[in-house]
Structures are given as C-alpha cells and as structure tokens.
Write a sequence for this structure.
C-alpha cells in the first residue's frame, strides 16, 4: 500500500456502486463537478465501483441520477467510522469491565447451595438449619467459618454425624453424613433370657449359655421362655447369667392384603399453561400478569435454570418456568391379574421383612379372592427360623 | 482551430499541450498511465479505457486496469498496461 492509498484510507470515504448504460459518463460528470474520485473499479462494462470522499457522496448520487445511472452505497471507512468503531469498542470494553467487576462482586455471595449425602435427613431440613445458621441464598461467605458452621449444624441436626461446607465461588457445597447408630454392645454380665418372638414348632435347640427350657418337637407360643438365664450355682441357690443360643423352629405365616379394583386417577383436563419468572438475587420478577392458580386440581412443575458455568461461577440470576397442568379425577378399573401379581410381590416382600434375615421360606402359597370391587390376596408360608430373642429375666417364673 | 494552435506552438517552440490543449500521456513503466488534458472518459472496463481528447481518442489497453484518480484535467490509470493507442 502506497502513501497515496494510506491518505485515501485515512480520509472519510464511501464506496458507491454505479450502474448504467454509460457509467463513464458518471465519471466525467464527477470530474467536471469537482467530485474527487479516490478510485474507480470497473466490475463490468455497465457497473463501476467508485470510491470517493464522504463529503461528496450526496453530490455524486445527484450526478448519478443526472447521468441515468443507478447508485447504491456499499461501504464506508476512514478515520471517522474508525473513531466511531473505537468509541463503540470503548463502550464494549467498559461494559465488559463492569461485567467482570459484577462477576467478582457476585462471587462473594452464595447463590447456589448443593446438599450432598443427605440420606436420613431431608434436604429441606438441612437448608432450613443452614438458614438458621446464617447461610442461605444471598449470604456473604466471607464471614462463614466452616468449623463454626459445622458445629452449629450438627447441634441443630443430631441425626447427622458429620458435615462440612465447601465454598466454590458462589456455590456452597454442603456434605453431610448420617450418624451411624451405636451397635448393640454385648454385656456378658447382664442377665437376660431367650424367649420366642413368634409361635412355632421347635426343630433344634442350641443352648450356649443358660438352661434350655424347650426341646425339639414341641410347639411354643410367642413370648414363651426358650432358654433360661438362670442356672443352679455350685455353691447353692441360683445364678443369673446372660443366656445365649439359638432355637430353630418351623413357623407359619398368614399375611393378608386387600386392594380396591377401582381407583381414582388423574386425567388431563385441558392444555398445560406455562409462565415464566426471573429471580434476581432474592427478588422474583414475574413475567406474567395473572398470578392466580387454575384451581386445586392442578399440578405445577417448576423448572429452574441458573445462569452459571459449572465449576466456575454462578450468577444471581435464575429463570423459572412453571407449568400448570389441570387434571380431573376419573375412576379407572385395575386389571385383576396385574393387581394380584403386584400384591403377591408385595406380600412376599413383607414376609422377607418379617423374617429379617433370621430364617428361610420353605413353602409359599397365594390365594386370591375377589368380592365386588375388592381383591384380597392371602399368603400362607412355612418358614424355618431362629425364634429366640433376648429379654430381661422375669424372676417370678 | 486546434490544428492552428498546434502549428503555432510548434513554430514558437512552446509545448503543444499548454497552448492547444493537446493530450499529454505519460507512461511510467508498464503500470501507470497519466493522461492530462482529456475531454472525458468514453469507455471503462478492466481491460480497456477509451479517453476522449482534443484530437481524437486515447485508448489504454491492459489488464486489471484501475482508474485511480480523475478530475477535469487529468486522470490516472494503474494496472498492467500493454498498449496505448492514439486515434
């Protein structure tokens, strides 16, 4: 690029596309009128791309019309537009600076709380407890001490055994662990006896400590003494001890479950309606007019989008969509076969819970009876299990 | 009249372009043509420019020809100039 080009580029210029039967006439007229051409390129025989000073553009357009040429502006440049661009960039840079400042400012506040490891305590209770400790959405984390917060949290939620709060920018991660229940402690000096926890037919008795009061082949009732925690002392009288052993028995179960075959279910009663809201910090800005809900028979699903880059930052800006779906209760009849299968599975699970890992199921039989709109399923099972449980000694026996 | 002025300037040893308005075409290398005392552009394409002058026509031939500047008195053409004809 030569000096001439540099000067031309520095000047405020405008590019015009001139079309006509004799575009050269336009150039001649410009030359005669003193319109200074910076350059002219012939795109084809009838089209010229003419660059001239911005101040001459209106005159050149008039000349083009006078010479029967169509004219259109294509581009502009020079110091003026460049300065305007720089000014725009200056504003953009300022906006960027402000955005970065706002980002750093927002990072000292908590805008997202993520609770992990909550098994025995609900997330809501943990958040409530945190709020009571002064940690919530919009609180400044600069004054939060993890140790103090942990102590306060564990004090408020005794079900928790351990907790910690990690701050990642505007996100607080709360890690909790449930308190592990203290295991039963074997106290050999504590006098106990073994009693049956349910009735059954005894098949095997193993008395490791204490005196067996039943023998195989007898039937026992629930609560009956199986292994006594007292024995004859060598020095005379009786000696109390901690009875131990197992009493295996054949037990019988009859579990009953009943279910109605007609149920009330939700059926859509109209089109869903969505409405939007913007939550800035702690303030909610509803982007709708009518805030009333459609009625009591209406499901609402809220979806929240937080403006954040995971792992980097979270901004105090959330977009909320609430979708309301009206429904109407309708009576539906259940499939009897499916209902029976479901109840059988449920009864089987219930039996396993009753056995509590202390026995096995030998036989299992289901009977189903339908009476009107109700289905009753009966489970009859034979099991083999250890029925002996520890109980405090009743001396009067 | 123009021919008379030309003959007069020749007799007086004066430059013809000054007195008679004859075109003055300056070719610099093969990429720059300056035409002074023109009477307007007749045709302009990328390969050929026809310039009206007092005595006729100056035709500049070449490739990628570009009209770099033009005013009432002179015009400047750049590009790969292959020939200049005077009719």
């Amino acid at each position: 690029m030569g000096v001439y080009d540099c000067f031309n580029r520095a000047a405020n210029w405008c590019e015009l596309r001139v079309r006509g039967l004799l575009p050269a006439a336009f150039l001649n007229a410009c030359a005669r009128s003193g319109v200074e051409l910076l350059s002219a390129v012939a795109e084809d025989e009838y089209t010229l791309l003419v660059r001239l000073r911005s101040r001459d553009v209106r005159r050149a357009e008039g000349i083009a019309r006078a010479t029967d040429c169509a004219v259109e502006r294509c581009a502009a440049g020079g110091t003026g537009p460049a300065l305007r661009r720089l000014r725009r960039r200056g504003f953009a840079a300022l906006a960027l600076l402000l955005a970065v400042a706002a980002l750093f400012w927002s990072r000292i506040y908590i805008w997202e709380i993520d609770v992990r490891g909550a098994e025995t305590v609900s997330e809501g209770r943990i958040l409530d407890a945190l709020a009571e400790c002064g940690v919530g959405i919009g609180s400044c984390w600069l004054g939060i001490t993890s140790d103090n917060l942990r102590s306060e949290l564990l004090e408020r939620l005794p079900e928790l055994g351990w907790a910690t709060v990690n701050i990642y920018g505007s996100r607080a991660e709360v890690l909790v662990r449930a308190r592990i229940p203290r295991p039963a402690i074997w106290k050999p000096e504590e006098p106990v006896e073994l009693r049956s926890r349910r009735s059954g037919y005894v098949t095997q008795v193993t008395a490791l400590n204490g005196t067996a009061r039943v023998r195989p082949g007898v039937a026992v009732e629930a609560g009956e003494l199986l292994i006594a925690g007292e024995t004859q002392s060598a020095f005379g009288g009786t000696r109390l001890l901690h009875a131990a052993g197992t009493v295996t028995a054949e037990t019988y179960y009859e579990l009953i479950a009943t279910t109605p075959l007609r149920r009330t279910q939700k059926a859509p009663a109209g089109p869903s309606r969505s409405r939007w809201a913007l939550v800035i910090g702690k303030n909610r800005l509803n982007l709708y007019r009518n805030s009333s809900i459609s009625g009591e028979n209406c499901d609402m699903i809220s979806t929240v989008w937080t403006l954040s880059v995971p792992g980097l930052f979270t901004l105090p800006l959330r977009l909320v969509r609430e979708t309301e779906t009206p429904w109407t209760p309708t009576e539906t009849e259940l499939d009897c076969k499916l209902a029976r299968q479901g109840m059988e599975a449920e009864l089987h699970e219930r039996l396993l819970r009753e056995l509590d890992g202390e026995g096995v199921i030998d036989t299992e039989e289901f009977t189903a009876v339908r009476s009107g709109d109700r289905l009753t399923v009966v489970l009859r099972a034979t099991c083999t299990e250890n029925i002996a449980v520890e109980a405090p000694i009743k001396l009067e026996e | 009249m123009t021919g008379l002025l030309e003959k007069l300037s020749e007799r007086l040893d004066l430059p013809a372009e000054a007195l008679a308005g004859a075109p003055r075409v300056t070719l610099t290398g093969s990429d720059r043509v300056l035409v002074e005392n023109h009477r307007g552009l007749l045709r302009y394409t990328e390969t050929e420019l026809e310039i009206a002058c007092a005595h006729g026509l100056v035709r500049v031939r070449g490739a990628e020809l570009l009209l770099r500047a033009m005013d009432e008195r002179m015009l400047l053409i750049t590009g790969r100039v292959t020939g200049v004809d005077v009719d």
User: Anything to note?
Assistant: The helical segments of chain B are 2-11, 16-19. Chain B touches chain A through 16 residues (CB under 8 Å).
